[in-house]
Amino acid sequence: VRGQGHTTFGQAQVEGGLVIDMSSLNQIHTVTDKCAVVDAGVTWRRLLTLATARGRTPPVLTGFQGLSVGGTLSVGGISGVSYKRGAQIDHTLGLDVVTGEGSLVTCSAEHHRDLFAAVLGGGGRVGIIARAHLPLVPAPSHARHTLLSYSALGPFLRDMRELVYRASFDGVSGTIGLNADGSISYGLNALTFYSRPDTPETPKLFERVGASAWRATTEFEYVEYCLLVDRLIDQLQVTGGWNDRVHPWLDLFLPDAYVERYLGDVLPTLDPCKDVGPPQLGPLAQIHLFPLLTENLRRPWLRVPPGKLVFLFDILTSSHGPVSDPTYASQMVERNRRLFEKAREFGATPYSITAIPFSTAERIEQMGSFREDFEACKAHYDPFGILRGLHQGDLSDA
Ligand SMILES: Cc1cc2nc3c(=O)[nH]c(=O)nc-3n(C[C@H](O)[C@H](O)[C@H](O)COP(=O)(O)OP(=O)(O)OC[C@H]3O[C@@H](n4cnc5c(N)ncnc54)[C@H](O)[C@@H]3O)c2cc1C
Questions:
Q1: Which of 107, 137, 176, 255 could form a disulfide with 287 if both were Cys (CB 3.0 to 4.6 A apart)?
Q2: What is the pLDDT of residue 180?
Q3: Confidence at residue 271, expressed as pLDDT on a 0 to 100 scale
Q4: pLDDT (tens digit, 9 = 90+) per residue, 170-187?
Q5: Which helix H or strand E contains 30, and what residues bound it?
Q6: Rounded-to-integer distance, Cα 373 and Cα 118, Å
Q7: CA-CA distances (angstroms) from residue 108 to 82, 114, 257, 278?
Q8: Residue 72 Cα, ligand 1 centroid: separation in angstroms?
Q9: What single-letter DSSP state applies at residue 43?
Q10: How much distance in Å is there from the Cα of 67 to the middle of ligand 1?
Q11: How far is the CA of 76 from the centre of ligand 1 (A)?
C-alpha cells in the first residue's frame, strides 16, 4: 500500500507484487467541531486547511503535512507535542479497513479491537486503511516557538527533561547541529500554542531552565507554523532538491537511561557533510530528538524501550545532490545498521520509517509480547498472506 510514498526505504514498495496507490482515495467526508471522517489517501495538509477553517485542528500533527492519513497511521506519527499527547495513532477514533480477504471492516477500541491494534502502526500488513475517523480539537490562533541554544549535551538534556516533566509547554523537542569546525550545537525547542488576545507568560515557563543557553523567540500564525516544512519541501521540489536526493534516515527510540551516553559516543563520530545533508535543507538535514512519555503511547505496534521517558532520535540524512556515487546509499544504510547495533546494546528499538534492513528473526524480536496477538490477527484477517511490504514480509517465513 502506498500513501504519498515518503518513507525513505521502500516501505511502500513490494518485491514481485502489486502496489496499491491510495492517493486517489482522497475524499474528506465530514468535518465537525469534534471529528473528521476522511479517506486514507487524504493528506494532513488538506485536513488541516478544512479543519482550521472552522477553528479546529487534529491534536497531533507531524513536522510535514504532505503525508497521507493512512501513511502516518500505519507508522505512528510523532512530533514535539507527542511528549504529552502521544502519537497520531493514539488519536484515532475508528478505521474502515479492507482486510486481506477483501472484507470491509469497521474497527475501533471497542469493535474488532484486534484489527484496530494490528493496523495502527502496522505498515499495511494486516489490512488496508480505507477511511479514518479522527478527533479534532480547538485550533489555537498562534504558536510561539522559543529556541534555547546550548554548546553542551548535558545541560541540553537536563533542561529538556525538566520541561518534559513540568509539562507546561505544548511541545518540546531537540535539534542537534554538527558544525563544520567540529563543534556540536544543541537546540531545545519549546512551543506554546495560544489564541489572541491571550498571550503566554513564557518567562515564567522557563524558570530555572536555560541558564547556560542563548534564547530566541519567534511568533507564528498556527497554520503557518504547521506548514513550515511543507513550504520548504514545496520549494525544494521545484528546484529538484528533494525528490532527486537519497534520504537514508536513521530513526530509533532510545531509553532515557542511556541517551546521554549514546549521543555522547555517536555524535562526535558523524561527519556534518556526509552523515547529515546540505544546509539548504534546513531541518530536513538535521538531527532531531523527540522526548516521549511512554504513558502517552498506547498502541502496541509502536514498540519503544521500557521506562517512563524515551527519545526518538532521527538523523535526517540527505545526499547533497542527485546521487552519482552508487555506493552512497549503501554506505549510509550500513552506518544506520552500525548505529542501531550500538543502540540495541542499550535496549533501543527502531521506528518503522528507518532505513535499516531487518531479518525476519529481528522483526519477530522487535514485536516482543505483541507477536502472538499480531499472528492471530494476521491468520484471521489475511489468511492467505497477501499483504506484504518490501522490508516487512508477513513473518510466515520465520
Ligand atoms: C519530510 C518528511 C517529514 C516527516 N516528518 C515526520 C514527523 O515529524 N514525524 C513522524 O512520525 N514521521 C515523519 N515522517 C515520516 C512519515 O511519517 C512516514 O514516512 C509516513 O509513512 C509517510 O506517509 P506516506 O503517506 O508517504 O506513507 P507511505 O510512505 O506511502 O507508506 C508508509 C507505510 O504505510 C503503509 N501504508 C500507507 N498507506 C496505507 C494505508 N492506507 N493502509 C495501510 N497501510 C498503509 C505503506 O505500505 C508503508 O508501509 C516524515 C517524512 C518526511 C518525508
A1: 176
A2: 87
A3: 92
A4: 999 999 999 989 999 999
A5: strand 28-31
A6: 8
A7: 21, 9, 34, 43
A8: 4
A9: B
A10: 6
A11: 8
Q: Which atom of ligand 1 is nearest to the CA of 64?
A: 3
The answer to whether the beta carbons of residues 347 and 310 sit under 8 Å apart is no
Query: What is the identity of the amino acid at 59?
Result: P
| The amino acid at 379 | A
Rounded Cα–Cα distance for residues 198 and 68 (Å): 33
How far does the centroid of ligand 1 lie from the alpha carbon of residue 322, in Å?
22
Q: Confirm if 322 and 244 have CB atoms less than 8 A apart.
A: yes
Among residues 120, 89, 72, the alpha carbon closest in space to that of 370 is found at: 120
In three-state form (DSSP H/G/I as H, E/B as E, the rest C), the secondary structure along 292-350 is: EEHHHCCCCCCCCCCCCEEEEEEECCCCCCCCCCCHHHHHHHHHHHHHHHHHHCCCCEE
Peptide bond between residue 300 and the one before it cis (omega within 30 degrees of 0): no
Q: Using a 6 Å CB cutoff, which residues line ligand 1?
A: 1-7, 11-12, 22, 40, 62-64, 67-68, 70-72, 74-79, 123-124, 128-129, 229, 233, 284, 353, 389
Going from the Cα of 60 to the center of ligand 1, the distance in angstroms, rounded, reads 15
CA gap 333, 249 in Å, rounded: 8
Residue that has been written with the C-alpha cell 494532513 in this structure? 44
Looking at residue 116, its amino acid is F
Taking residues 195-215, what's their average pLDDT? 86
Other beta carbons less than 10 A from residue 380's beta carbon: 16
Cell numbers that stand for 210 in this block: 536555560
Query: Which whole-number Å values give the CA distances from 162 to 188, 205, 207, 293, 332, in the listed order?
Result: 12, 11, 10, 13, 34
C-alpha cell at 325: 556515487
Q: Which residue has the higher pLDDT, 212 or 290?
A: 290
In this structure, the residue with its CA closest to atom 28 of ligand 1 is 5
Q: What's the order of all strands across the beta sheet hosting 287-293?
A: 214-221, 142-150, 184-194, 171-178, 287-293, 309-315, 250-255, 349-350
